[in-house]
Amino acid sequence: MWIKVKIYERIENDILLDIKSGLLKPNEKLPTNQELAEKYQTSGVTVRKSLAVLVNKGYLVSIERVGTFVKEREKDLFLVNFSLEGNINEEITDIETEDILISMTKIKGEKRELKTLEIRRMYRSDSMPVGYSIDALFLKGRYLTEGIEKKAEKNIAIMDQILNSYEVKKTMEVTMDYPNKYISNRLLINENMPIFCINIHFSTVDDYPIGKRTIYVLGENITLNGKSFYK
């Protein structure tokens, strides 16, 4: 049986498909109503009807006199326990320290940045990347950039000792987002493939920031159990 699809439904379905496939990215501006009307050989009223449906469903946001944009997805926050060994489904056979450097890292909830010692690690299972982590320890003048590679083993040991201490307060958030080009290249995936991003913030009992750990993991390689803050 052949069913005729109405023009406004076709426009709606095409835009929705482009959003879900990643062709239209979050915050990307759509063509103007006039351009869409010309493309589908229909009226502006029909185009506005299609866009209004997607706005109501939460896929688009319309700004008067500016245009219509793909709405950025809300990031779900979860209360979970996480460890690479306990939550990654693949057996980790190799952990490689790829880089050690001095950088500036933004503190959660504040505009300022702090000088950090940053260590980047690749986690592999049978030579295939399954996770990538970036550890950042906020510095207080105890390290110098010169000769930092020569102190690599010592730096890693100090960082692990501090961040894994039972006296350090840890808060964690888990989101699913699209990776940037650097992370997608490291994990050998497409930038349009969403992955889990685990951010662990370390602080003193008085909430003074000590460091931050960010872990990127493919969804198929991770098991998470927790309670969402959102209903």
Identify the strand order in the major beta sheet: 4-5-6-9-8-7
CATH-defined architecture of the largest domain: 3-Layer(aba) Sandwich
Number of strands: 10
Total number of helical segments?
Answer: 6
Outline:
The chain is of the alpha+beta class. It is built from six helices and ten strands; from the N terminus they run αααβββαβββαβαβββ. The chain has a six-stranded antiparallel β-sheet, with helices on both faces. Strands 1-2 form a two-stranded antiparallel sheet. A two-stranded antiparallel sheet has the order 3-10.
Describe the structure.
The structure is a single chain. With 231 residues, the chain is of the alpha+beta class. The protein folds into two domains: 7-70, Winged helix-like DNA-binding domain superfamily/Winged helix DNA-binding domain (Arc Repressor Mutant, subunit A, Orthogonal Bundle), CATH 1.10.10; 78-228, Chorismate lyase-like (Chorismate lyase, 3-Layer(aba) Sandwich), CATH 3.40.1410. It is built from six helices and ten strands, in the order H-H-H-E-E-E-H-E-E-E-H-E-H-E-E-E. The strands form three sheets. Strands 4-5-6-9-8-7 form a six-stranded antiparallel beta sheet, sandwiched between helices. Strands 1-2 form a two-stranded antiparallel ribbon. Strand 5 (113-125) and strand 6 (128-138) form a beta hairpin.
